[in-house]
Amino acid sequence: MPMINRSLLTPFTFVFAGALALIIAIWSWPAGAQTASLTVSPAVARQNTTVTLSGSGFLPGETASIWITYPDYTVYGVAVVTIDAQGRFNHPYLFDFLGATFTPTGRYTYTARGWQSGREAYASLEVEMAPAPGVTAGVQLTVDKPVQAQGATFAFSGSGYQPGEQVALWLRYPNNAVADLGTQTADRQGRIGLAIVSNGIPVGRYALTVRGLQSGGNGIADFEVVAGDTLRPHGTATLTVGPGSSQQRSAVSLQGSGFLPGEVVTVWATLPDYSTEWLGDVTATGDGSFTAELYLSEQDPAGRYAISAFGNRSERRAVAEYTLLPGR
Hints:
By secondary structure, the chain is mainly β. The chain has 3 domains: 117 residues, Immunoglobulin-like; 87 residues, Sandwich (Immunoglobulin-like); 88 residues, Macroglobulin (MG2) domain (Immunoglobulin-like, Sandwich). It contains 2 helices and 24 strands. The strands form 6 sheets. A 5-stranded mixed beta sheet has the order 2-8-7-4-5, covered by helices on one side.
């Protein structure tokens, strides 16, 4: 049974691979006496600020792993620390560890676990939206079609900037995460243009901000991405996913049928936020069927998924639903 080879979607996976490996290695250890404690300060913080994690009640000198659970139940490694002689640690931590992307707003949970003692402690953090500049008088930023389905191109035009100045662009997602789109140079009339293709991104409301780096002029344009037709079956092909639900860090079986013999079948997942992720290509057997396995890790968000299989010659499309539960 082939295993679908999933491409890595986020560059920070490499940064925390070592920490995650250590976390996973101790995940199944039996917990010791629950005498450890963990606090985060401040408990409510805005995006792109620093919080401090403080732990106590661990074994002096032991090593402890720290990880964070996001609002969508994805899990990432934070650090591996050494406990001091009093059984404590302090770790300043910028929770925006995704590079140029601000952390989504919502409720997070930190976990610290001692390797030798097995003691585990938790602390919650509420992340609020960072302050953002408003629209500057005389600056205009517009979008041609403000509501379109996934896959469409949104065309933006701006005016009112200084001729030839550099402008910075960033995009706020429906979950309030912010992506840095780089810079652009305004033309001789102080105008800019930009196109955003909405392939595979989450559905919901977005805000594009363009700010002049010399003038300070700020333009904002809102737009909305709605679900496309990628969840609609087409033709006689079928797809089943088993089991119908499971926890993170487990494998599921995909079984497809009704495709053309020998054709390439593309498989993708529609995530709980309706963003899409390519999972891989498989080749149908002589009877038009295929079987594959898909591994879902702690870095996959919990919630309802739709798995789609598309025959590249027959254009038949089959869809099956699956629920991913938070891991323990």
